[in-house]
């Protein structure tokens, strides 16, 4: 046969177009688009269903070592299995530098964690927590040249946060070497001060997590991050934007002509601070993440930003911790004060179905915008486009065939190793019916077909959302 696989009668959706076509796949790559394609060794009739590029989840945490006894529930096996069953075919989790550790050692460690386990293609963002002269002068530039073309920096968390001077130092490296800097923007000192006050007042239930991180701490840090980036003259991407106040800062920056990109996540569309508890019940620990979910009005602000172009990327921020047991939300089995609850919620499998159901089928965003936010833009922002993030001749054969129809989110039907989903019981209007990665069916709507260890590491290129480098010498400044 001419092809390994032919998907027939697909309503192909890209970030810009929608057209009916067959898709001819050979050697894991899309070889031909058109009608009446020659036979494939395997054929799938899409029967007019929507086919989108496989999702690129550019913000997820897999197998990141935590302070004992806490441990992430998903490694590269279970995490990429859940991703594939939810329509995601590429993940970019983090290789986090521990203070005192070299960046190289961090990268080697994460490669070892993914080796032989990942079912889908993957790359790593760096997390720079210790910008020593060696890191700034040699390691980071070297790693960027090797294809680690993005890194995350934190303005909060004691073991990760950088001060403003350090942020300027790393942003300067991003500018000089063409990397995308992702920033977690929350004011650490405000959070610490509020936490001490809450604790002194005996307000330690999970719901007080949201009281310790009001929107103004995100707004202030977002503005500061924007200012630091303006000083260096470098694009940045603000991750996990939660609501109106940070959105306003980003709109302001854009109006100044600054290249400030932004990411948001499902929790800011579908959860509110009430999910952290309306009383002092510990159950709310399941939805503790940072920044915390806000309220209904802020959900609408996030929807508006998704539809009008404010947001560049829609990621899961999957940070998997079990609720029961000793390693997750209850360290050593205890109901701890909110500031000791591991931050983060699972969502790698539900990211695309939630946005497709409530965004596309709910009439809030177009199908093209859905593809742009979940696949094309993340691939562009992090140097994977056009190999990833689109349906085109020469692109990897990573595809999702969508099944429309009523379905209820049940954790029992998900494929992560977390013992709950924050979205339990939600009614959906669509779910991936087939997920194809590298030309192979990983999810057929009923069963997962493992490809353990066959997910490839992706050496990334220059982020294509960065401004073009001048090819000729710049004109002299006026
Ligand atoms: O609470 C969250 N989001 N935890 C994951 C780590 C991060 O800051 O993204
Ligand atoms: Zn056809
Ligand atoms: Zn973060
Ligand atoms: Zn995160």
TrEMBL record:
<dbReference type="GO" id="GO:0005829">
    <property type="term" value="C:cytosol"/>
</dbReference>
<keyword id="KW-0479">Metal-binding</keyword>
<dbReference type="InterPro" id="IPR011059">
    <property type="entry name" value="Metal-dep_hydrolase_composite"/>
</dbReference>
<dbReference type="InterPro" id="IPR006680">
    <property type="entry name" value="Amidohydro-rel"/>
</dbReference>
<dbReference type="InterPro" id="IPR050378">
    <property type="entry name" value="Metallo-dep_Hydrolases_sf"/>
</dbReference>
<protein>
    <submittedName>
        <fullName>Dihydropyrimidinase</fullName>
        <ecNumber>3.5.2.2</ecNumber>
    </submittedName>
</protein>
<feature type="modified residue" description="N6-carboxylysine">
    <location>
        <position position="152"/>
    </location>
</feature>
<keyword id="KW-0378">Hydrolase</keyword>
<feature type="region of interest" description="Disordered">
    <location>
        <begin position="453"/>
        <end position="478"/>
    </location>
</feature>
<feature type="compositionally biased region" description="Basic residues">
    <location>
        <begin position="453"/>
        <end position="462"/>
    </location>
</feature>
<comment type="similarity">
    <text>Belongs to the metallo-dependent hydrolases superfamily. Hydantoinase/dihydropyrimidinase family.</text>
</comment>
<feature type="domain" description="Amidohydrolase-related">
    <location>
        <begin position="50"/>
        <end position="441"/>
    </location>
</feature>
<dbReference type="GO" id="GO:0046872">
    <property type="term" value="F:metal ion binding"/>
</dbReference>
<dbReference type="InterPro" id="IPR032466">
    <property type="entry name" value="Metal_Hydrolase"/>
</dbReference>
<dbReference type="InterPro" id="IPR011778">
    <property type="entry name" value="Hydantoinase/dihydroPyrase"/>
</dbReference>
<dbReference type="GO" id="GO:0004157">
    <property type="term" value="F:dihydropyrimidinase activity"/>
</dbReference>
<dbReference type="Pfam" id="PF01979">
    <property type="entry name" value="Amidohydro_1"/>
</dbReference>
């Amino acid at each position: 046969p001419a092809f390994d696989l032919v998907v027939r009668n697909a309503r192909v959706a890209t970030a810009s177009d929608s057209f009916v076509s067959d898709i001819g796949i050979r050697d894991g790559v899309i070889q031909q688009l058109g009608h009446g394609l020659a036979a494939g060794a395997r054929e799938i009739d899409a029967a007019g269903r929507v086919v989108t590029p496989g999702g690129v989840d550019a913000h997820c945490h897999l197998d990141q070592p935590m302070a004992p006894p806490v441990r992430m529930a998903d490694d590269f096996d279970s995490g990429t299995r859940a991703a594939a069953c939810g329509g995601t075919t590429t993940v970019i989790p983090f290789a986090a530098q521990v203070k005192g550790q070299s960046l190289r050692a961090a990268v080697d460690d994460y490669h070892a964690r993914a080796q032989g386990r990942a079912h889908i293609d993957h790359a790593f963002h760096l997390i720079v927590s210790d910008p020593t002269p060696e890191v700034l002068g040699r390691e980071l530039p070297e790693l960027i040249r090797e294809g680690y073309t993005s890194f995350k920096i934190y303005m909060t968390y004691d073991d990760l946060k950088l001060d403003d001077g350090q942020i300027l130092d790393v942003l300067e490296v991003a500018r000089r070497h063409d990397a995308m800097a992702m920033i977690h923007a929350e004011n650490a000192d405000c959070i610490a001060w509020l936490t001490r006050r809450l604790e002194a007042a005996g307000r330690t239930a999970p719901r007080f997590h949201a009281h310790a991180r009001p929107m103004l701490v995100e707004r202030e840090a977002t503005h500061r991050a924007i200012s630091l980036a303006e000083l260096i003259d470098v694009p940045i991407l603000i991750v996990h934007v939660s609501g109106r106040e940070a959105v306003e800062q980003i709109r302001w920056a854009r109006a100044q002509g600054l290249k400030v990109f932004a990411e948001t996540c499902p929790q800011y569309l579908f959860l509110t601070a009430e999910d952290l508890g309306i009383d002092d019940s510990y159950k709310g620990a399941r939805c503790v993440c940072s920044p915390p979910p806000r309220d209904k009005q802020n959900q609408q602000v996030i929807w508006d930003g998704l539809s009008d172009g404010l947001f560049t990327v829609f990621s899961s921020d999957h940070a998997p911790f079990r609720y029961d047991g000793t390693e997750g939300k209850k360290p050593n089995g205890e109901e701890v004060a909110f500031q000791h609850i591991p931050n983060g919620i699972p969502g790698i499998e539900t990211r695309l179905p939630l946005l497709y159901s409530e965004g596309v089928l709910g009439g809030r965003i177009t199908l093209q915008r859905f593809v742009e936010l979940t696949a094309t833009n993340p691939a562009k922002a992090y140097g994977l486009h056009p190999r990833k993030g689109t349906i085109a001749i020469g692109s990897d054969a990573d595809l999702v065939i969508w099944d429309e129809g009523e379905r209820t989110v049940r954790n029992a039907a998900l494929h992560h190793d977390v013992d709950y989903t924050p979205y339990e019981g939600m009614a959906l209007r669509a779910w991936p019916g087939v997920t194809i990665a590298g030309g192979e069916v990983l999810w057929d709507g009923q069963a997962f077909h493992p490809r353990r260890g066959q997910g490839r590491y992706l050496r990334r290129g220059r982020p294509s959302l960065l401004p073009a480098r001048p090819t000729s010498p710049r004109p002299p400044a006026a």
